[in-house]
Amino acid sequence: MSVASSTGAKLFIIYTGGTIGMAPDDVSGTLIPMGFREIKYHIPELTKLGYEFDMHAFTPPMDSSNMSPEIWIELANIIHANYTDYDGFIILHGSDTMAFTASALSFMLENLAKPVILTGAQLPIGEIRTDAKENIITAMEIAAAKRNGKARVPEVCIYFDYYLFRGNRTKKYNTETFEAFNSFNYPPLAEAGIDIKYNDQFILEYPKELFRINTRLNAGIAVLKMFPGITQHAVNAVLQTSELRAVILETFGNGNTITASWFMDCLKKTIDKGIIILDRTQCDGGSVELGRYETSAHLREIGVVSGHDMTFEAAVTKLMFLLGQEYPVEKIKQLLETALKGELTEK
Ligand code: ASP
User: Fold this and answer.
1) CA distance 251 to 259
2) pLDDT of residue 81
3) Does ligand 1 come within 6 angstroms of the Cβ of 30?
4) Is the dihedral of CA 265, 266, 271, 276 positive or negative?
5) SS3 state at 146
């Protein structure tokens, strides 16, 4: 389906599901997804915007808690198939795992020269106080925005509650307020008020090479979250996971862990088997600094890799992406500490 344009911008909308398009089930009252036709019915403004747009709707639409690497690949393929025909892409997505999808796509869409804006809502589109309308309409404006004839935001982003964030810097941090997302370690790329104010200095540079997708992913990862009192059994249960290629070690503060010798031995044996251990802080703001405290100096010595200030979502998807490339372990370790798509602040 196509809608006539007055501005000439051509957008492609992918509707995956999420609260944005949910309605209460008549019998149980549980929120279940509805189709894109109903969404359009609730936002007549879509046609008034003056953009031409086409869409692809998932059938059935999904709650994003069921998102998976296979669906990230499907999304990358849909964008690839439509890339040359459109100025920008909008993905309507549940908020629960939106930051994972945005992070994964940021690595899979290489040399991206067009905006890919994910958005959703905290309240379904049919509710009077819904945030869906504003989110979708402004996401479309951003996806259509140009500067000197080129896309203003050639990145994968999340737009939510008046802020545009880099996708791989974003985290869902609130289930109650309309401000569901935040980017603790990187400034917003734009803020929508009466005008949309773009922070051009923080937006990725326009790529020099041709767009392509890279859909090789390997999900052989696990997460070990530190807490005072963690037992050797719990640690071993994670580190001895079969088919394990990498572990995200969720640490205290600047990347610190307990220093008990049994714990260090477990980590060292794991690294000696060629399994990567990535240190990511449990704190939302700030960075891992291996060696700042005695409780992290030993981690660097045995070959633990610093996750710097990456979000958990970026760490998960970057590991899956790098493991999928089948690079040697040392190269993966080096790339983990390098900003590939602006996902971390290099020291
Ligand atoms: N459970 C929903 C989802 O992620 C929540 C939302 O859309 O906000 O699909």
Assistant:
1) 12
2) 98
3) no
4) negative
5) strand
